[in-house]
Design brief:
Layout lengths: L3 E3 L2 E4 L41 H14 L4
Antiparallel strand pairs: 1-2
Length: 71
């Protein structure tokens, strides 16, 4: 199962897949077809091998918000 959250909002779930360039590799920061890319920085990417509970996700979001001065 794949879940992707961006700025606290779920952007990807079991029924959708991230963009793929056809090689089976996943892409973050580009659109399908790789014609447009993010014009900016990705400060941090955290990958877990288990689904986080809502409480665990809230704790990670709080940590990152404090770390990057967002709250």
């Amino acid at each position: 199962n794949t879940f992707l959250y961006r700025n606290g909002a779920q952007k990807l779930n079991n029924s959708t897949q991230p963009s793929s360039g056809g090689s089976g590799q996943q892409s973050i920061g580009g659109e399908s077809g790789f014609t447009r890319f993010v014009n900016g920085d990705i400060a941090e990417l955290i990958i877990y091998n288990v689904a986080l509970s809502a409480a665990d996700r809230a704790a990670v979001e709080s940590y990152l918000g404090t770390k990057y001065g967002l709250f």
